[in-house]
Amino acid sequence: MAAQAGSVPGPREPETGQVRIVLVDDHAIVRHGLRSVLEREDDLQVVGEAATAAETLAVVSGAEPDIVLLDLKLSTGDNTEGMQLCGQLTELHPDLGVLVLTTFLDGGLVVDAIHRGARGYVVKDVDTTELVRSIRAVARRESSFDSRSAAAMVESMNSPSSEPRLTERELNVLRQLAHGLSNRDIGAKLFISETTVKFHVRNIMRKLGATSRAEAVYGASKLRLI
Question: Rounded to the nearest 5 degrees, what angle is found at the Cα of 219, between the Cα atoms of 216 and 222?
């Protein structure tokens, strides 16, 4: 019977040659669909499921998987929590292979995921054969990206540094920074958490090469981003 989200299986059994996978997605129907597809392969075994960051950390600790198939969009409504979780997982479990499987296709996100330790990035409408190939590649400690993610990453990396590419959410946060709002006030205005605002502010400052909020606003105005 399929494991419920947040369930922690028993200790890892001796090596069997199978790739042990934990599925992380906040939609049960997606997890169950992935499980049914992946377990048709003799060398793939789903050993746990999770819907939130907290559940994921617990399940991974108990199941000791080889791969975490991670959706970036969890309970916060954007990619923030999943991206932070990616960094936590790779920091706590250096041998773990994180493969991002998400609907978000943005070169900056692909690069950010790599910086946080992900070994691969594929979009959710990739065909089953490509997904299985990516899982096996990551299990071999190789990198794997579907063609569109790879193209988006290359485009992002080749973009002139003088023209940073901000996401729509980052631009919205930047506009509020320009009005002098605090992180708490920005969160209330945009209906996101204060932690999420801090995450976006850090990204904005990194992309603009700024060391302060004021410098970020000044730099953005010079580039006519706001």
Answer: 150
N-to-C CA span, the chain: 53
Cα-to-chain-centroid distance, residue 79: 6
- pLDDT tens per residue, range 102-158: 888 777 788 888 888 899 999 888 889 999 999 999 999 988 887 777 877 776 666
Amino acid, res. 117? G
Residue 70's closest CA among 91, 55, 56, 54?
A: 56
Q: Is the pLDDT of residue 1 over 50?
A: no
Confirm if 208 and 164 have CB atoms less than 8 A apart. yes
Q: Which secondary structure element, helix H or strand E, spans residue 111, and what is its range?
A: helix 107-115
**Which residues lie below 8 Å from residue 106, measured CB to CB, with a gap of 6+?**
152, 156, 167
DSSP per-residue string spanning 124-189: TTS-HHHHHHHHHHHHTT--EE-HHHHHHHHHHHHS-TTS----HHHHHHHHHHHTT--HHHHHHH
Contacts of 73 (CB under 8 A, 6+ apart): 26, 79, 81, 82, 102, 103, 104
Are the CB atoms for 60 and 22 separated by under 8 Å? Answer: yes
Integer Cα distance of 128 and 126 in angstroms? 7
pTM value is: 0.64
Reduced DSSP (H G I as helix, E B as strand, rest coil) percent helix, strand, coil of the chain, to 5:
50, 15, 40
